[in-house]
Amino acid sequence: MAVSSGPQIALTDEERFPLLDDLSFLNALRQDVFAPKFNFKSGDRLNEAQLSRVHWHKIKYYKEKVFWSAAQMPIWLKDYLHWCVETVPFYQNKGNDLDSFPTISREDIRNFPHLFVSNEANLNELLVYHTSGSTGPKLDVLFDAVSQASWLPQIESILKDFDIAITEGKHTTAIALICAQEKTLTYASLSTYLEGAGILKINLNPSEWNQPDHAVKYLEKYNPQILTGDPIAFMALLDLAPQLNPKAMISSAMKLTKGTKNKLENYFKCPVIDLYSLTECRNIAYATEIGHKIIRPDLYLEVFDEHKNVKLPYGERGELVVTGGNNPFLPLIRYRTGDFCSLKIENGVPFIVGLEARNPILFYTKSNIKVNNIDISNGLSELPLAGFKMHQRKDKTIEFLGYSNEVTAEEVTAFLHTIFKNDIDVMVDIQNISQNNTVEKTLYSSELI
């Protein structure tokens, strides 16, 4: 008999929330008459020592953020490298100088996950997160309860820039992760860090609910303070026209266009924040007019040549590389993100400039004039597209698939003809957004590479 590789429910609620005596709000979220058909149970598992470490991490890195500069590395880096060399098998036999470390890749983590676990990690605290594999083969990422729970102070540090605070307490829903997929894990949970406030992950797919209108009624009843999700899910939510009053919406996983951002802000009357994060190290930065403002002083960012193990000078564009974090199951030293940008420091704060997810792609007109995908992204950003894919065939024909309930194929076709100087053949398909989308997140590809 085959062993299931999916999540296994093995803990009691008391084990999931050892510091929370009153679980009545959790039961209310699960058993509400409008509740979805939750298919999983989740909890932060924080004990007193672990919760103290989360608060310590918040005070050390987020109360007063001290970053690095173009001329000086962060003050914690030397001790961090020494700790990695002494306790993490993958980094053994390296020097304590950052330049003695080559870059590492997703494949290194996939092939040797055990070698990235510090000898000081407590295996009893091991948590495993399965990535979707939307931008490549699936990857299991290991965490402990502290590094997992640290996403909340990271989110708080972003909201602070908008003068927004999450209300704590056992009778409020702090955050709801909104999905609009064919299938995904869904659950109601609590946050020990937020004094028992509710945490939801729901899927708008009608098959997940007992009645068609229950998704709206459930969300309106518990009115989450913060909504998180990707642009596809947010536009699917907008289509349901719920009467919600979120303090903020945090979009991640896919590019958020200006058109989509404006529509969401106009309806929900709150900031819509475009977050850049990685499963491997959680939240990194959020979009501003300057670029993506980095929020993590415990991460050190560099830019490397795409193909060579060569660090590029400050200000040059290349592949973003990450060092640091607080996860003893996956300490990162010069991890290649697969995303491309340059770095800029303004008033002591680093910014990621011109961020493009995954490898930059060049497209060509029929006359072989090059068109950069960054220019395409900038132009399409003005349209309320929740997501899109663009591919160039060997005969140079452009195939475009977009997701929107408003943008027409004619609008996209006209834009593509303009940016390709009317020297291209295009095939445009615009699909409506629903509550059960199956959407790939890879944006650009070409057979001419």
From TrEMBL:
Q: Signal sequence: where?
A: none
Q: Domain of life, per the record?
A: Bacteria
Pfam families attached to this UniProt entry: AMP-binding
Matching Gene3D superfamilies = N-terminal domain of ligase-like
**Where's the AMP-dependent synthetase/ligase domain?**
170-325
Q: What is this protein called?
A: AMP-dependent synthetase/ligase domain-containing protein
